[in-house]
Amino acid sequence: MIDTALFGAGRIGKIHAANLARLPDMRLKYVVDSHAPAARELAAVHGAEACSAEQALDDPAVRAVVIASSTDTHAELILAAAARGKAIFCEKPVDLELERARQCARAVATAGVPCLIGFQRRYDPTFAALKARLAAGEIGAPEMLIVTSRDPGAPPLDYIRRSGGIFKDMLIHDFDICRWILDDEVVSVHASASALSDPAIAAAGDADSTAVTLRTRQGRLCQINTSRRAAYGYDQRFEVLGSRGMLQAGNHRPTEVTAYGERAVAADLPEPFFLERYRQAYAAEMAHFLEVMRDGAAPRTTVEDGVRALELADAATRSWRLGRVVELDQV
Amino acid sequence: MIDTALFGAGRIGKIHAANLARLPDMRLKYVVDSHAPAARELAAVHGAEACSAEQALDDPAVRAVVIASSTDTHAELILAAAARGKAIFCEKPVDLELERARQCARAVATAGVPCLIGFQRRYDPTFAALKARLAAGEIGAPEMLIVTSRDPGAPPLDYIRRSGGIFKDMLIHDFDICRWILDDEVVSVHASASALSDPAIAAAGDADSTAVTLRTRQGRLCQINTSRRAAYGYDQRFEVLGSRGMLQAGNHRPTEVTAYGERAVAADLPEPFFLERYRQAYAAEMAHFLEVMRDGAAPRTTVEDGVRALELADAATRSWRLGRVVELDQV
Amino acid sequence: MIDTALFGAGRIGKIHAANLARLPDMRLKYVVDSHAPAARELAAVHGAEACSAEQALDDPAVRAVVIASSTDTHAELILAAAARGKAIFCEKPVDLELERARQCARAVATAGVPCLIGFQRRYDPTFAALKARLAAGEIGAPEMLIVTSRDPGAPPLDYIRRSGGIFKDMLIHDFDICRWILDDEVVSVHASASALSDPAIAAAGDADSTAVTLRTRQGRLCQINTSRRAAYGYDQRFEVLGSRGMLQAGNHRPTEVTAYGERAVAADLPEPFFLERYRQAYAAEMAHFLEVMRDGAAPRTTVEDGVRALELADAATRSWRLGRVVELDQV
Amino acid sequence: MIDTALFGAGRIGKIHAANLARLPDMRLKYVVDSHAPAARELAAVHGAEACSAEQALDDPAVRAVVIASSTDTHAELILAAAARGKAIFCEKPVDLELERARQCARAVATAGVPCLIGFQRRYDPTFAALKARLAAGEIGAPEMLIVTSRDPGAPPLDYIRRSGGIFKDMLIHDFDICRWILDDEVVSVHASASALSDPAIAAAGDADSTAVTLRTRQGRLCQINTSRRAAYGYDQRFEVLGSRGMLQAGNHRPTEVTAYGERAVAADLPEPFFLERYRQAYAAEMAHFLEVMRDGAAPRTTVEDGVRALELADAATRSWRLGRVVELDQV
């Protein structure tokens, strides 16, 4: 039984707690949240204890931490947990500052602990099946990747101001998809962006619509298009063109009802947002965290993946601001 | 906390036990199975106790029973549980003999206990959404219902011989769908059937392919087509034609991957069989059982529904054997 | 160059004339219509001559006739054309009276002329491709056929009264599909029907909704469901279950636009009615008529097919009226 | 009756000739081709006369010319036809040299003749329906456009060497789609490209895969992805995200057959190539040419559109070669 401490009792923290509860070999021991009532409430649901960060980190019985607190606390918690030899699961991004994220990666390497970053899309049944079929050679060598990633609506301005910008907040997932699916590293980035849905977003120095092109070492091309506002829901698709065919990952729908009316044939909208769309993925990533700790499985989403995605987000932000292509210096 | 006894530790018993375990207000106290090791194993998983039927039934703390044992035990357990005032959930069919099923219905009515029959399809998200939209008038008055219901492969001959025949074993679900969707009672049945996949099925006096037409009091028409063998998986669809449109309930797929190859555009096969297809439905029906007991909700699938579906299965069997239309004497 | 006479300058006559005009080896010489202005107008479009039936039939230069006039004139024109040794294309049905249709078949056989019946669905690209793939063994042996055939709206009552009833007027096409797709003959028919859209249809002794089950010599089952009124357009689908899979023929749509709105994902309705849905089929059947005449190709839809479909329509009508299964005496 | 001269008796010339033949008010008088037998053969099919370019241009009875000859002859023929006051239909591109294309545009303006450029996609039923629905406000203001445009296979190297490069040869259509759909002008272009399918293409100084981002005056973003080789056929899709929804234009398929096999559910591949995919579009654009001449309709695809698309192709080529964003100086 692996005693676990959860940092963050918000929306995503609750999901991790519930998924953890279903795993026979993990036990939620502590819930930590700067808002004490939230910690107590979530702890009560799962028979855990609300406590301070120090208490949770300093308890040697705690072998695993799940970091689902606000972004500005990620790095500190990773460093503290790594220093104490605990296995780490941390929501993306590692940090908004690239240098700080790299520091975390070095600390994790030094400590020799597993550190999974919450790129939950890699665990989605549709995306994972596509990746497996691509790896099995079904469409030959991949040549192009087109990623569509649109949210149903923009978050509050206050959130946007603290988010690090659309590239670090939203596209970081899409950058990870590109690296994962193409199994290749990016050499140059071009990003264009606009604020079309709300002038306040532009006033805050951010954008709500982006069009990004990545070029990989092997000359593969990847295009990402995103929007903060898709009136029809949460749109998460990608397609890979290979030398012998194409694989598409489509949206999931709540039901398979089709209505033939007097004006159109209508199907369900996509799942409304990430909590519904990635419900299975969140459960699978927590199960994977257990596999890593218990069985020594190789982590599927490492802190290094987190750093690389952040590098791309940084490069894209610069490309957009400067209006030119940005080269990545590959190690 | 409602203490519950589960009868039957087989495939479907395990599913009910797991769904029960997730409900905060229900507790699995006993598992009963004629094969003792199976009972012990399942009881161990959920912290319950394996015991005899008598012990479980005679424990006054047990307020609910879930009957997932073999068909020939259903009626006896229903009668015993009803006599003791326990709430009942029982898998379909109530019994293979119509008279015996009616006896159960009377006993349940006399005892005043809730008795839900496991027509889990009514709880499927797709089917339930269709029903709700139909009830909301989206396509006007329903006029025709076409039900496609095909299994991926025939069960063992031994099972078939004890099954009561394809109409009682397989179509009983489809008859329930017809009554539920059309909200109307059947006045006549015509059934045609063949054994096309395996001569041994014919030799056993049964069929593997059926074509049934039902006519309701209001003159609505319903066609059901079934097969014991769909090479492509478990095919569960229906469509309702109404005066202002049509609603279709389609199959569910494991993933939303689409492959464009050199010969075709390919999507996933439907979910392979009922355990996968109706995973959500099984969870929802157990949650509904709790609602009925705890909140006094009206049962969505009653023992009366079980009797009516059996009447239709009987009528269809006679229609097929006699080669003629069979009228139902409606009360 | 094959000189051709067209009987009937109505909607379907105009289509045949236009398709004929595109065939390099056929020439429309005469147009005959009891309504003289219609004949003159259509003749003018195509550089043909309006004339009487006698003149067209008695001109030895006319080697082919296309009969698209009202049903009650079909038999007489077939007999007259066969007697003069002309190749015949005739719209369905051969006649409303089975004995009269059989008389036509005998006359055609005696004369040794080709006589194609206008079961245009056999020439539809989707239906023909499905048939070819079935014949190539793609899904093994066919076992069940489900036919959905719905019109967008009922014709005028006046038409219905002269139509011979829904089974002869509308289902005759579906009966032909069953014989063609299953390549098997029917041994028994059960038909149920209702008038649900308009009481005046019932008052006229007809129905607007039918549910038919056919059983073939080889024990295959076929279900047909039809309606005179599908609010969403012209619905023409069928599916064949075989021992190794299933083939579905779906509707055609005017465009491939998909709209993601705030409430649903919407695609085009099916093509509105038969003129649009079977545009390509009409062209292909006229081209086939030429192949038969010029190249000696075997006719794909013979007068015998017309007789057989009428037998089924007769049997279905009787089954509905008598409320019982009707056996067909197969030769 | 408008006498017309056709330049070019190749694949696309034959299509224009056949579509022209169906228009009652146009008559193909001359066919011109540097390969005389091709001209004679096509002329014979349509009752026209093979002749020299001079004869066709100098015949004052010829009021319209259709230019479907090789690209290097377009400008000269446009200039000659404009000088003689003839209405012009010319395949894309106007010319490979932007300055020469602009010269044609000026000549056409001076002559006051209509000059349609063969951007046939604007006439495609699916694309035109999408444009109309967008214009009607169905999804609010357009914000992003994603264009997928892939050929089934690369043309011969010899063709590629004379093609002007993939941006002028292939993407010119996509650039036109962007301007047409967004109804906005482009201010900057970024293009990335690779030769992934065949090293000989790289050796010829060209690419076979491109990823292009356009930014419009109003800040809208457009991404185009293209490939010379899609193993699954001709892939022509685009989607527009608007403030209130999204419209997608999908591929057309030869048939609507769906096969449920033991491994997948399979639908038809897209139409194999442009001749099949745009059959209806080619007919519609020739009908529109007649409308313009006979009824004075405003041309839907002008020589100015041809110049603008070429500007974008030039800019994209430069962007790719220089590895930087290229600004367009908008007039």
From TrEMBL, chains A, B, C, D:
KW Oxidoreductase (keyword) present: yes
UniProt cross-references to Gene3D superfamilies, sorted A to Z: Dihydrodipicolinate Reductase, domain 2, NAD(P)-binding Rossmann-like Domain
EC assignment: 1.1.1.18
Keyword Signal attached: no
Residues covered by the Gfo/Idh/MocA-like oxidoreductase N-terminal domain: 4-119
Pfam family, one: GFO_IDH_MocA
Domain (Gfo/Idh/MocA-like oxidoreductase C-terminal): residue spans on this chain: 131-328
MF terms (GO), sorted A to Z: inositol 2-dehydrogenase (NAD+) activity; nucleotide binding
Keywords of this entry: Oxidoreductase
Similarity comment: Belongs to the Gfo/Idh/MocA family.
UniProt xrefs under PANTHER family: BINDING ROSSMANN FOLD OXIDOREDUCTASE, PUTATIVE (AFU_ORTHOLOGUE AFUA_2G10240)-RELATED (PTHR42840:SF3), NAD(P)-BINDING ROSSMANN-FOLD SUPERFAMILY PROTEIN-RELATED (PTHR42840)
Protein name: Inositol 2-dehydrogenase
Annotated organism of origin: Chromobacterium rhizoryzae
